[in-house]
Amino acid sequence: MSAAAEPPGPDDPEPAVAAGPPRDIGDLPGGATGGVTGATVDRGPAGVVRPARRWEVPVALEIASGLAWRVLLLAAAGYAVLYVMGLLSAVLIPVVLAVIAASLLAPEAHALSRRFGPVPHALATALVLFAGIAIVGGVFYGVVLAFISGLPDLTTQLTASLTGIQEWLRTGPFGLNNEQFTAIGNQAIAYLQSSQATLATSALGAVGTVGELFTEMLLTLFTLIFLVYDGGIVWRFVLAGVPRAARDRADVAGRRAFASLVGYTRATVLVAAADAVTAGVGLWLIGVPLAVPLAALIFFGAFVPTLGAVVTGVVAVLVALVSGGLTDALLVVLLLLVVQNIEGYILQPLLLGRSIKLHPLAVVLPIACGLVIAGIPGALLAVPLVTVLDAGTRSLVRPSDGEVDPATVNPLDPRSGRPEWLDAEPTPGHLRGRLTSLFRRRAS
Question: CA triplet 206, 207, 208: central angle to 5 degrees?
Fold first, then answer.
């Protein structure tokens, strides 16, 4: 056997480079640059010369590609979340409705148990739940009953309105007389005529069978009871999944988010009721038929900000146009403008102040997205979700909230949604003082 190979010493010549093709496109033998003039070279072992950088990605392309795969990753994560939410919609929607209802009832239950000391919290919760369910159920039953009872006449009036508008556009000064316009008008009329028969079927199809609807109502009620009674314990359990270093900050953000939801829910219900009563009385004084169903429609439309008022207002104007002519239609337009101004300049500032203030674009776009993704439930839940996210995000990025003790933030007070509102707003104890401060701010 031959002796074992020894490693080369310092005086031994360098081993020859094995013949063959270059190991890399940049491998050049010897000390040459392979005919590449001006190349920056790097001498490696065995006399191999490599360019220091063979090619370079343009900075703009590198940034664009980095943003692209991150955006795609976020889109995939968002799609996965929406897909899972769709699978769990039968559970998620009752829980979300219970949270919204809890934001309306929990402050009253805590106020009752705190104001009347001998009343236990469990008894106060039971009283508030029974009273709230009775009031809300009675109001919604009356509104829905009035709307359903007047739906046939309302559909007839709308059909006649569209027919009259179509005829006026054909024979009036515009002189529109083409087949496409006629087809669109006929489709709209056919849709209104068929909607009356399919309304109940569509409503049941949106939530499944009657048994599923009953199950979801029980789940909503069961969740609501524990959120009103043990909401603090439930929230602490959720916080247990947050890292300890960020737990206090997340606690403050969650409390402010729920406080904004309390203010939004309370104001929306009161504003919807005020709009419906004011518009109903005005429609009755003008002499528009179906005043009660139209008021019920305005009540439901108030839960979808901006878009709801536009849709319900158009319906009221069309009914007034076909029943009383152009004069009644103009009076209804004036009435709706007065109602909207009362809502925008008196009711909402009086009930909310600046604690919840979203840009109109931040209201319309989420409603449109919710309508596309989840239909009518998505449109109804879009603005509450944006309200909660807005308050929570503002708290997370606000430097001063990093030093706030979570126990000092009251999640049941709408003013806690934005601390700057608490510091800057005067808080008079009666209605006259609030209206005075409101008009002073508007004048300035």
Answer: 100
**240-to-103, 256, 389 alpha-carbon distances in Å:** 22, 18, 20
d(CA 184, CA 93): 36
- Return the minimum-mean-pLDDT range out of 102-111, 232-241, 355-364, 426-435: 426-435
Q: Report CA 143 to chain centroid distance, whole Å.
A: 25
Work out the pLDDT band at 304, boundaries 50, 70, 90.
Answer: confident
**Residue 208 pLDDT greater than 70, yes or no:** no
- Give the Cα separation of 11 and 69 in Å (integer): 54
CA distance 377 to 216: 14
Instruction: Give the N- to C-terminal CA distance of the chain in Å, as an integer.
Output: 105
* Average pLDDT of every residue of the chain: 75
**Pairing of the two strands 49-51 and 41-43:** antiparallel
| pLDDT over threshold 90, residue 68 | yes
| Helix 244-286 / helix 291-301 crossing angle, nearest 10 deg | 160
CA dihedral 203, 208, 212, 214 (to 10 degrees): 10
Nearest to 308 by CA among 225, 233, 219, 376: 376
Mean pLDDT of 254-268: 88
Helix, strand or coil, per DSSP, at residue 41: strand
- Gap between the Cα atoms of 119 and 125, Å rounded: 10
Which residues partner with 50 through β-bridges?
Answer: 42
Residue 410 sits at the vertex; the CA angle it makes with 407 and 412, to the nearest 5 degrees, is 145
Burial of 297 (0-12, 13-18, 19+ CB in 10 A): buried
Q: Is the pLDDT of residue 430 over 60?
A: no
